[in-house]
Write a structure and sequence with these properties.
Elements: E1 10-16, E2 22-27, H1 30-39, E3 53-60, H2 63-75, H3 78-86
Antiparallel strand pairs: 1-2, 1-3
Amino acid sequence: MNDKEGAVHWIVYVLECADKTLYTGITTNLDRRLAEHAAGTRARYTRGRGPFRLVYRETCQNRAEASRRETMIKLLDRTQKRQLCMGSSTGRMQ
């Protein structure tokens, strides 16, 4: 995850919930964050909506960049979000 000692990269990610809704968030540790979603801790929106599928992820250089990108993705309509996810190597939407 880090290419330089001490460098922290932020990840913007999109989850598809069991009810087919999409959740967008940011983190520095995707594995930990996915475990938190699965456990029902932290994000109120995802509680009770599991299981989840990671359908998109994007690495950013810093928190500000990740936050801007998260906002941009959240402003997309569902069709645009699906297209973004389908066009990524992580995207596995059906």
